[in-house]
Structures are given as structure tokens and as C-alpha cells.
Amino acid sequence: METRQNIRVTQSQRLQLNLGLQASIRVLKADAEGLTRYLEEQAAENPHLLLHPARPEAGDWLPRWESALGGGGLDPDLAASAGPSLMAHVVERIAAMGLRGDALRVAELLAEALEPAGWLGRSLTEIAAEAGVPVAQVEQVLRRLQSIEPAGLFARSLSECLLLQAVEAGQDSPVLRGVLENLPLMATGDAERLARALGVAVDAVQDCFRTIRRFDPKPGAQFSAFSAPVREPDIVARRHVEGWVVSLNRSSLPAMSVSAGRGGGRGAARAVIRLVESRNATLLRVGTEVLRRQEAALDHGLAALVPLTMTEVAEGLGLHESTVSRIVAGTSVDTPKGTLWLRNLFSGRIGSGTLSAAAVRAKLADLVNAEDRRAPLTDEALAAVLSGEGAAIARRTVAKYREMLGLPPAHRRRILR
């Protein structure tokens, strides 16, 4: 049998990511913290890429302190995004402490006085009077409860909340305590004036600014499935006279520049800067479009979320859906209702109506948060209430959403008297 050799020319396609495309995807997916680490890596490899610490200025984002500092208490909107599972978390930790008698009664009263943001909503004098014990005993129990994670729970003021976190992180110092005692002055961003008041160097105050801004002024809010941990958000949404205005958070990233002169490495440094600027422009476009479509949620809370998909946003902006998916991954937006994950503003539709699944989950969280802890609502009762909102909600759907929110069933939410 004779064999023949044939040469065939075929054509095939293969996608191979070059280094530039890989870097572009990494930058596009990174949040502020991840992008800062990337820039630090690039600056370490390329000495011509210069990074400068972001210095807070008047008007820059601050961790929701303008509301906390204003009236000596919590803004109601500040607590709106908090989830109801905070109480379950605290009750579980108190039970593990093995408290008895008056100490247990005081601990229960302190837990009941806990605001959704994690602060105490009553004075120790009032709690001592109700429990029939000295104020000193309430203070002793309070110190034990302040050890419950996350640090900052059961604080009586914003400065105490932040100080508890500084102590837990091992970053407590006389200068930091001085800054915490002058939070209204810090809120103005005037580091030089604060440095003069404390008699220290401006750089030391700036270091404290950066340290404090990593802390969470409302640690209780992280128990909500919708709230993002309070940190440096990527974008900020604020209502002005002309409507909602979305802007980048300038203080979340270091400033960048290229060293003077000529030579190798400067072109690569400029490429990195262009990459970051392109990412910021895309983030601002996507964030603005998402929030424009979800203005009702900005005005009235997450229960007003409308159905929205990434495909709809991508088509509206002329982008690919994968670009939208990458840019919203890990991205947070600071709003008057709290700091939210941008990804959580997307939601599918319930049935054929206009109600979104995210809105149903938010309403479920509100119902559980407002329920009587001595007679909590069952899944059947919750389904009946939610079905009156315009869409038929099955009991098993309620159970699924409740588990997604981290909420225990009714019998575990009950508090016995």
C-alpha cells in the first residue's frame, strides 16, 4: 500500500493576551485599594513613576463624618442601609460570655440600645436606672461588650468608635488621640491648623488622617448584605440643586507624575498613568449611568431599586458587557444612604412586573428589622406581606432571600423575656 504525504494550510484563531491587555484588565477590575497596590508595584519597578500621597482637602470624601458630627447623633439616613442581623450577632456573642444576674440584664439592655450603625443610642445613666445597678457596673459590662468584633461596636461617640478600632489595630498614639479629639477640625481637611493646635508636624497629622480614614465609623452596618464596608469609596454620589452628581473620589488613589528629564522608563510610566486615567473615565461613565437609572433608590433607599442588567448599561454606553462587569467588580459608591457596592444595584426582574429581586430583599430586611423580637415574623407571614407589594412571593423565595441576607429563621430571631 502506497502512502502519500499531504501538506495542508489551515487557518485558526486564537486569543492571546499580551502584557498590555493583561495590565488593562487588571486595572479595570481593581478597586481603589487594589489599584493603589498595583501602582506601588509599578513604582517599585520603575523609578520614573512617582506616587504622591493623596492629601484630603475641604470637600473631599470623609467616612460619613459630616452627618455624624452634625447633630451629636446618627443621621437616620446613615442607618437606613443597616441590616437586622446585627442583633443576632451581638446576642450570640453575649451568650458566649457566660454572664449571669445583673451583668446579663445590663448586657441585654446595652444590646437593645444598639443602633444599626453599631453605636449606643442611650446613655449609661438611663440603662443603669432601668437595670437598678450603679453606673460603674454598666461601664464594666460595656467594656466587655466593646471587645465584640468588629471593633467599634457599643461606642458612645464617633471618636470612641474610631479609638476602639485604633487600639484593636495596634495603631493608638498620642497624636492620633489628639486628632480624634478634634474630629470637627479634621472634617475640614485642614491638617496644618490641626498640627498647630496639637504642636506636632503636619506629616504626623497627615499620617493619622490616612490611618483614621481606614477605620469604619459605623461597624454595625457591615451586617447588611447591601452595604459595603465603609472605606475609601471609588465614586461619590451627592444631590445638588440641579440633581444627582456623581464624581470620582479623588482621595482614594495616590497622585501620579513622571520624573523630569528624558530616558528609558518614562514612556512606560506615562503609559501606566494613561491606563489609570482611562480606567477612571470608564468607571465614572458606568457609575453615572447606573446611578442615573437607579435614582429612585438614591432618593428612597434600596427598596426602590428597579430591575437593571449589565447588558442594558453596556448597550446604553456603547461598551461591552464584560467591560461593565469588570469595572463594577469590587467598586463602591458613597451615597447619603450609605456606602454601597455598585454591583448590588443590578438586579433581575420578579415575574413580569416592575419589581426587582434586590428591592424585595431590601424590603425583607426592613420587615425583619422592624419586627417585634418577642414575636418575629415567620417566612409565611413575610411572604404574605411582600406579596402585597405587587408581585406574588412564595415562602421558599422568602427563605432563599433570608439566607442570602444572613438572617436566621423566626425561632432563632426570637428574644425571650
Automatic annotation (TrEMBL):
Gene Ontology molecular-function annotations: DNA binding; DNA-binding transcription activator activity; nucleotidyltransferase activity; sigma factor activity
UniProt GO BP: DNA-templated transcription initiation
Function noted in UniProt: Sigma factors are initiation factors that promote the attachment of RNA polymerase to specific initiation sites and are then released.
Protein name per UniProt: RNA polymerase sigma-54 factor
Sequence ranges assigned to domain RNA polymerase sigma factor 54 core-binding in this UniProt record: 80-259
Keywords in alphabetical order: DNA-binding, DNA-directed RNA polymerase, Nucleotidyltransferase, Sigma factor, Transcription, Transcription regulation, Transferase
Top-rank lineage group of the source organism: Bacteria
Gene3D superfamilies: Homeodomain-like, RNA polymerase sigma-54 factor, core-binding domain
Residue intervals of the RNA polymerase sigma factor 54 DNA-binding domain: 269-414
Keyword DNA-binding applies: yes
Entry's family note: Belongs to the sigma-54 factor family.
